[in-house]
Amino acid sequence: MGKHVPTSRLARGTALGAVAAGTVLRNQRARLSMRRRSEAVRAEMAEESMLRTIEQVVVVLGTMKGVAMKLGQMMSVLDMDLVPDSHRERFQQRLAVLRNAAPTVPFDGMREVVEQDYGAPLESVFAEFDTEPIAAASIGQVYRARLHDGRQVAVKVQYPGIDAAVRADLRNLTMFRKVLQSAMPWITPAVLDELRLNIESELDYHAEAQTQAQLAELYADHPFILVPRTVPEHSTTRVLVSDYLTGRTFDEARQLPDAERNRIGEIIYRFYVGSLFEFAEFCGDPHPGNVLVLDDGRVGFLDFGLYNRMDREHVDFEITCLRAAAEERAEDLRELMIQRGVIDSPEEIGAAESLEYVLAASEWCLVDEELTITPELASGAFLLAVDPRASEFAGMKQQNLPPEHLFSRRADFLTFGMLGQLRTTANWHRIAREWLYGDDPVTELGIAHRQWRAEHVPARALPKGRPARHRASQRTTRQRGSSTGRAPRR
Questions:
Q1: What span, in angstroms and rounded, lies between the C-alpha atoms of 61 and 55?
Q2: What is the pLDDT averaged over residues 401-428?
Q3: Cα distances (angstroms) measured from residue 391 to each of 9, 28, 190, 199, 399
């Protein structure tokens, strides 16, 4: 097991959801009926009332598609501390439904979508087609099939009418926001606005197939990452055909021994976060349903509807900010954020708050020691950063993060959440130094990745213009500090 983070900052937020939900989610009828009951009975009833309300939210999200499903998947990954410990396992089981098993649509309706897009009978394209879905995405279902040339393929088909449903959700987002925030205050306007800006791109499977094809080519022959190839001649706006992968699901991987989980966790971190800093592009939808652990030790990654390519300038800004935070250069960090427009009310935000806010969300990869990531750490960081119920960082939460960074930070939080669900251990800072400082890799996976990159990735695909090392870089390693657990201030 890894050592604890040398700070209580991440842990401070872990009880926020449970404490606030006890008051926010108890309905009025339950409160009135408990007035004369003992404290013990009242607490028990409040707990049951809260659980029923939360489960109703899960059911609603599970029967909807698009935006609602994305929020449900985010809840399941980040384990939001919405219920007491005694019910957490039951609640997580309900949320797991939102990962891979959304309510299915009868095959007749799905067949009609395929044949409309192909303009031909299903049998003319596929030699075999299993009518039972093997997975469900936020806007479609996935089937196993075989092409006439013998290739086994996965076929993702959009739900009939989902495009109209998603666009209707987006038009009604203001009302949708109020309903959700009554139960989940951490769903801020910024979170929903970011989803609104990006989710409509998922409706174009043809564009997604092109993105996936480019990634499959980029990661060809990679020692531990696999992106399945697409079949472009059979991919349309509403149908995406790609190579079929078999392997352990994420939930099955959670039961593996520590060493195997740690290896998988590092691969997930490198793919979802490392790709941003190495290639200035990343998948914006990290969640367990998009990961398969293959028998040969590689990890397969699926679903690229929410994919983002960033200007190198924006990526370098994030690197510079993370380095300033790691080095505890609070004044430099604040000035960077003011210049970029992250802080638009400088008179309200001091240097200390700027630093503490960034560390609350990102210190897990800025601490130079082994760290086991837990669901509590991941959800606590997220709640501290975005939940308006938390008194910390009130000034920073009123600032407007530019859209190009909001998307990348969401991907970072969701990756953190996945690693928490996996309960994986690593020195995340030593891995991150490869892209933050250009350090040589220190893990076996890092060495294998660096060798693959040198042999397979054209120089033009690699990041350029990395910021020069700051003269204080010798201070970048955040070490265990005094007995209080704080890193020493210099």
A1: 10
A2: 86
A3: 13, 26, 18, 31, 15
